[in-house]
Design a protein that fits this description.
The complex is a heterodimer of chains A (434) and B (143). With 434 residues, chain A is of the alpha/beta class. Chain A is 31% helix and 24% strand. In chain A, the strands form five sheets. In chain A, strands 4-3-5-6-7-8-9-14-13 form a nine-stranded mixed beta sheet. Chain A has a four-stranded antiparallel beta sheet with strand order 10-11-12-15. The two termini of chain A are 32 Å apart. With 143 residues, chain B is an alpha+beta fold. Chain B folds into two domains: 67 residues, VC0802-like (2-Layer Sandwich), CATH 3.30.2130.10; 71 residues, VC0802-like, CATH 3.30.2130. Chain B is built from five helices and seven strands. In chain B, strands 1, 2, 3, 4, 5, 6 and 7 form a seven-stranded antiparallel beta sheet that branches. The longest helix of chain B is centred in the first third of the chain and has 11 residues. The chains are: A alpha/beta (434), B alpha+beta (143). At the A-B interface, helix 11 and strand 20 of A face strand 1, strand 3 and strand 4 of B.
Chain lengths: 434, 143
């Protein structure tokens, strides 16, 4: 049952891979040095010229790229191709109100489809499959990323996008979807809604689920598999690097294969930047080898993982990353949406009407994540009229929703009722057991 | 003559009202009238007290946020239709009532009501012109 989309690449020897990576890395550095002044300056600061980077071993000489770099170069400062060659952009949350914008050339879109095709094939999908894409279509990379991969293998893409759960289920049953792509929490919500409607997995033709964009546990995986009657795969990606399909687990479910002919992965100590040996736990760092529009060198993902270079029983030689076990920053993933507490803080500060003292409470009700933001009312905002306070509450809610792209419950609380801390403020209570 | 009302934002937590009333009691502040506007998450406690300044201070010192608003106090005959006649006067002049509540005691056969309207000045003028007795802070304090 070993199905490959591109067996030659997916199973190439580590030596050959090393050769390809080295060649591509040298090319990447030349392109970036020539086309991206920001990177050129960073290299100069380290006293580097492109000729210094000849092989994968030289990677460590290069500077890291951080979310801060993306913010400073917003929106197009890190694009390595002229805008006229960019055929699409996606965006994800930045650490403040500003988003991170990523651009793709025609070749980048084709590469992404190729890597998603590898993922779908790894999950057993073929040209005969019907792939329901319930990730959101839009600036978020999930929907379109999966969609192009589905078309690439010649399967039937069903672009339901996110939301409208009843219709999702009707489509799944009536159209005979074989593969479901969505966040794991949404998969459980679909299962629950199906059960309420008296629809059992036997009424469906689901075979595989490609779930990602948020953390989930092994227990959740078994529950989804049982309740939806499918084989659940864990997919990983981030828009900065490409989107979904940077890595995914194979049928052995023992780590997510990173497509190393296009990305080099490293694990570093987040405090010192030191590169750690295989199987050590640390921060995952990616270098995109072949991307044209938005290539990144040593991008710090803030995801905590480890790398296993042993050949997998599936036959693939590509390194396996462990399921990310946390973050080295305070980013939260809520219903698949990346949320930084600092985004909420900047909304409150910009409004200038409330105190900047807030607390974020994340929970999981049923199978859906909920976010509540408690905001302290300042003396100036206390009113004798309920409608004035409710009006403020509504405005906060709307501003937060338009910034995060996520509805949050806003709870106004008494002044000084949120605990003050002397060190780093504790802003988040996450009650989900991830 | 306007009357000072203390408004306090309180979260819906058990024991909150007990604490506030205890606090006022300890400071020798007497509560003369009160109303609570509540929503699912919070309430606004509005108080008419014997000593508004002392009450405000006590509440702020305790760490709660109080706001002082000026409201109108009226005395209307404590008979059926007594309040209706006063409200009709305001309605005729197009003055809206934001909220209102009554005192727990009565004096000399009158019922006493607190009104929050959108136009204090006009409301007081038309009420007086129509023979409705307006309460002064002294009247209130002497209850």
């Amino acid at each position: 049952m070993a199905d490959f989309w591109n067996q030659k690449s997916e199973c190439m020897s580590r030596d050959e891979l090393h050769h390809i990576q080295s060649e591509r890395l040298a090319g990447l550095v030349r392109r970036i040095y020539t086309n991206v002044p920001y990177y050129r300056d960073k290299m100069h600061e380290k006293g580097l010229v492109p000729e210094d980077i000849k092989s994968v071993e030289d990677l460590e000489k290069l500077p890291f790229t951080t979310k801060q770099d993306l913010r400073e170069t917003y929106p197009y400062g890190l694009f390595a191709a002229p805008l006229e060659d960019i055929v699409r952009v996606h965006a994800s949350s930045g650490t403040t109100g500003k988003q991170v914008v990523v651009g793709y050339t025609q070749n980048d879109i084709a590469l992404w489809a190729e890597l998603m095709a590898r993922c779908f094939t790894m999950a057993g999908a073929t040209k005969n499959s019907k792939i329901q894409v319930s990730y959101g279509y839009g600036l978020f990379t999930g929907g379109l990323g999966a969609h192009y991969g589905a078309e690439r293998i010649g399967a039937m893409a069903i672009p339901t996008s996110s939301g409208n759960t009843k219709r999702q289920i009707t489509v799944m049953r009536d159209f005979g979807s074989n593969v479901l792509c969505c966040t794991p929490s949404y998969a459980l919500y679909l299962a629950e809604t199906m059960e309420e409607a008296g629809i059992s997995p036997d009424d469906l033709q689901l075979q595989a689920g490609i779930f990602g964009a948020e953390p989930w546990t092994a227990a959740m995986r078994s529950e989804i598999e049982r309740r939806l009657g499918l084989d659940a795969f864990d997919i990983y990606g981030l828009s900065e690097i490409m989107g979904p399909g940077v890595s995914m687990d194979c049928i052995h479910k023992n780590g997510l294969h990173i497509w190393e002919d296009h990305f080099i992965a490293e694990i570093i100590n987040p405090d010192t930047g030191e590169v750690l040996p295989a199987n050590s736990k640390g921060e995952l760092v990616f270098t995109t080898l072949t991307k044209e529009g938005f290539p990144l060198i040593r991008y710090r993902t803030r995801d905590v993982s480890s790398l296993n270079f042993e050949k997998c029983a599936c036959g693939r030689t590509m390194v396996r990353m462990s399921k990310p076990s946390g973050r080295t920053d305070d980013m939260l993933i809520i219903r698949g949406v990346n949320v930084f507490p600092s985004q909420i803080e900047s909304v409150l500060l910009e409004m200038g009407e409330t105190s900047p003292h807030y607390m974020i409470i994340v929970d999981r009700m049923g199978n859906l994540d909920t976010i509540e933001i408690m905001v302290e009312l300042t003396p100036a905002m206390v009113s004798d009229e309920v409608k004035k306070i409710e009006d403020l509450e509504n405005r906060i809610r709307q501003n937060i929703e338009s910034t995060l792209g996520l509805a949050a419950k806003i709870t106004l609380v008494e002044a000084k009722s949120i605990q003050r801390s002397e060190g780093k403020a504790k802003r988040v209570i996450d009650r989900r057991n991830m | 003559m306007l009357i000072k009302q203390i408004s306090i934002f309180v979260q819906n937590k058990s024991g909150r009202l007990a604490e506030i009333t205890r606090l006022l009691g300890e400071k020798g502040v007497n509560i003369l009238a009160l109303s609570i506007a509540d929503t699912t998450d919070f309430g606004i406690l509005r108080l008419i007290v014997s000593n508004p300044d002392a009450a405000e201070q006590a509440i702020s010192e305790y760490g709660l946020t109080a706001k002082v608003t000026e409201v109108i106090g009226v005395a209307v005959p404590h008979v059926p239709g007594g309040l209706a006649s006063a409200l009709a006067i305001l309605n005729d002049k197009g003055i809206s009532i934001e909220y209102m509540y009554a005192f727990v005691t009565k004096s000399e056969g009158d019922a006493m009501v607190i009104l929050k309207v959108d136009d204090n000045f006009t409301a007081m003028k038309v009420l007086s012109e129509n023979g409705i007795k307006l309460l002064t802070p002294e009247d209130v304090a002497s209850i």
